[in-house]
Structures are given as structure tokens and as C-alpha cells.
Amino acid sequence: MIRKKRHSLKRKILFSLTMFLIGIIISFKVLENKHIDINNKYNDLLLEMTYKSLSNKTYLEMLKEDEKEEVVDNPPLIYIYNTHDREEYKTINGLTPTVKVVNNILKSKFNSNNINVLVEERSIKDLLNLNNWNYSYSYKASRLYIDEVKSNNPSIKYFIDVHRDSLDKSRTTVTINDKSYASLLFIVGLDNPTYNLNLDFTNKINNKLDEKYPNLSKGILQKGGVGVNGIYNQDVSGYSILIEVGGYENNIHEVLNSTIAFYECFMEVINEN
């Protein structure tokens, strides 16, 4: 009789656990069907874990220290977005960060300097699906967001499109003073009517990186001609940047180090601008 009760109890526990797991799976499917981007929650969690491992303070505590109330009243100066917003980095603790994690780091750092930043939260994939466009139309999709944001926020001067390289870790990682970084690469479109302004601005940032973090930047790749985009939406402003931060095998720690290095050099340039 006691054995039967134990077996019955085990079956109830197993049934409850099974239903709980099914509920979680269904919830995630519902979120996906409603086009709710859950990557940001993953990225926030990964950032918190990273900050905890690098200091005694949590990510949220550091954000509260960085962000100042007056930044809310400032008109936005920078727009950060991702034309290829589903590019991923190395999985850590079961979570896979996307390039959007770079956006969050940059926003936190810029806010600490009273610079208001708009970060694009909307999905590129949603626009592609809505217009029946394939992946090759990603820049056309991100341009729709850019034009809307620029129209509604004429104060925005700087545009940063964050990407990730497709090379393996041996070609996207550099060690500086015993610290590992995800290498940086800039792309400037040759067919862009504001090409000279974009190249000059990008050169200034790249030179700062070479000075402060030798070998972190792989330089500036200039692309144009037949079969190449050649513009990359950089015609929207002479202060438009396309940057690749690391590759698919880089971890969140390396990405964090490089993003902060880029931020420091970017800040120096715009302060001198």
C-alpha cells in the first residue's frame, strides 16, 4: 500500500514537471508569434552576469550610477541600430547574446556623459516579412527605421550601425596588456555621396584606437562597385559609422572590453569635433 502511494506521488510530480515545461515552451512560442523580441532580456541578463564577474557591483547598480536624471531632458544626439540584428556571439550559460548587447553597453556609457541615445528596439526581420523581402534587403529595411527616427529627432547627429564579423576567433580576437578583446573593423561605402565625410570621421576614431589600443582595430574596409551595397545607409549623415565588433566565437567579456574601448575613442573624437 505504501509502495503504491509512493508510485502515485512520483507520477504526480513527474506530471506536474512535464506540464510546467510545456507551459514554458508554449509561452515562448506565443511571444515569438506576437513578434516580441526576447533577445533584449537575454542581453540584459548576460550583461549583468558579465559585470558581476568583472566587479563587485551588479550591472543594474552600475547603470544607476552611470545614468543621470538630466540626460532624460536632453535631445537625442546618437542613434544606435543593427541592420543585421540577429547576428550572435558565443553562447554563455545557455544564453546567446546578439549584437544588440553592444547597443546596451554603449547607451549606458553615453548616458554617463549626459548624452541621450536612441537605441533601435524594433526587429529588422519583422520589416522584411512585412514587405516580403529576403535577407539581402536588410539595409533597405533598416533605412525605413533610420528615416523615421531622423524625421522625428532632428537633433540626432551620429548614427552607429553595429555588426559582427563572420570570421573565426583566431582572426577576431586580440590581446592587449593581458586582456582579451574582440577585434574591431570599420566599413565605409565608396558609393556613398557623403563618402569623404564618413571616411574622415571614421579615420579619426580609428586613429584614436590605434593610439590607445594598438591592433584592436583591423582598420577601415572601403567597399563599393558592382555587386556591393556601396552605401550602407551612410548617406544619412557625414557622421555615420558601420562597425563590426568581434566575431561569432567571441564571448561577452571580449565584446564588452572592445565596446568600451570604442566608446572612449568615439567620445574623444566627438568632443574634439
Shape: globular
Helicity, in percent? 40-55%
Compute the separation of the termini in Å: 83 Å
The secondary structure category is: alpha/beta
Low-confidence stretches: 20-39, 51-64, 66-71
Mean pLDDT score: 83
Number of strands: 8
For the sheet with most strands, the description reads: 6 strands, mixed
Q: If helices are DSSP runs of H or I spanning 4 or more residues, what is the number of helices? A: 8
- Order of the strands making up the biggest sheet: 2-1-3-8-6-7
Strand content: 15-25%
| Rg, nearest Å | 22 Å
Q: SSE order, as H and E?
A: HHHEHEHHEEEEHEEH
Helix and strand topology:
Blueprint: H1 2-33, H2 39-54, H3 59-66, E1 78-81, H4 100-111, E2 117-119, H5 124-130, H6 138-152, E3 158-165, E4 173-176, E5 179-182, E6 184-189, H7 195-212, E7 217-223, E8 240-247, H8 252-272
Parallel strand pairs: 1-2, 1-3, 3-8, 6-7
Antiparallel strand pairs: 4-5, 6-8
